[in-house]
Structure formats: C-alpha cells, structure tokens
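name: query_chain
kind: protein
chains: 1
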Amino acid sequence: PKQQLTARGWQVVVVNYNNPQDLAFKLTGVHTVISTVSGPPQRVLIDAAAQAGVRRFAPSEFEGAPSQRPQGADALDRGKQAALERLRHHQPRGMQYTSFVCGILYERFRPEGLIGSGIGRGSGVGAEGDYLMNVRQARAQIPRQTNGQLAKIRLTSAEDVGKFVAAALGLQQWPTELRMSGEERLDVSRVVQIAEAVRRKIYSRHIP
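structure:
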C-alpha cells in the first residue's frame, strides 16, 4: 500500500502509536486528521493531534449515527465511545470534530466483504458474510430491532463516502455529525430479496 500511495504523489509517514510524543511531532502542521484506526491507537492519535494543534479531527466511524446508538455495552464499540469522549474533551481547546454517518456500505456484500475493498481490517465484521448475508453462499441472517420489528438500513458506496468527506474539507465549521445515505431506507429482508433476484437463488434465512 505504501508504494501505491507514493506512486500517486502522496507523502507517507510511518508512525508509532506507542510513542505519543513522536506522533505529535509528525502531526505538526497538519490541519485535519481523518482517522481509520480504532481502539487505543485512535485515542493516542486524538491526544497527539490536540497537542500538535490539529484543527479538525474525524474519528473512525463511517457507519450509523453515534447520537442514535443505544446506551450500554456494545460488543462492536471497539473504543468508539471513548474516542468521542476524548474529542469532546479537546473541542473547547479549538479542535473541531465530526463523525461521518453513512449507513451500511454496499461493499459489505461484495466477494471478500469490506476487506476485499481494503476496508474494515481488524474490525471483526469486515469479512464476507459478517453482516446480514453471504451473497456467494446464499445465506442470510435477518436482524430485528429491540421492538421486534425487522431492521431497516440505508446503503451507501465507499466511493460516494470518499467524495462526501473530500467535499466536507471545504466547510468552515464542522457539526459533530455529518450525514449521508442512499435515498431509500430498506427493510433488511428487501435487501436480501434484491440479492436473491440478482443471483437467481433462494437464500437460506435465519431470523433470530
């Protein structure tokens, strides 16, 4: 990946998340950080960015709205709540932050899942079939909401998310959430029906 980025003219800097001072030094002069790491490394990155005088920070979210998440234990949190708390701590000191809210990425349903697009490594839910359905194996698990109703989702492509993020760099002020999504909110069973029509196969379904 490093060679691919440098070939496109990007400057690539190797950092050590176990060395906050060195990380802050390498962030000197950086205006905006868009994080793609989670857990303890992201918290170190947030503090180092604040120390270096970074003006804006986007945590590694790129999914549902943090403001709408249920309170309590979340097996898929991966330190996200702690990261938002650090960002709220640094906000009065001049570092704006926003969470890019994009719903579910279409790329989850491609061969190899999100990982096949170079996204979601280490997330625990980035492999093919980790979310909702395995298109090639014609299997689906239909989630329900806490009220018993089938869940509804919006879908967005990673390419569109990238364009949205790039456009957001031109904003003078960042709200704490910037939202985008596909036009239609789909029942998850409808998403599976679309996959069945495309693949011309009936999927085995598990509805908890």
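note: The chain has a mean pLDDT of 87.
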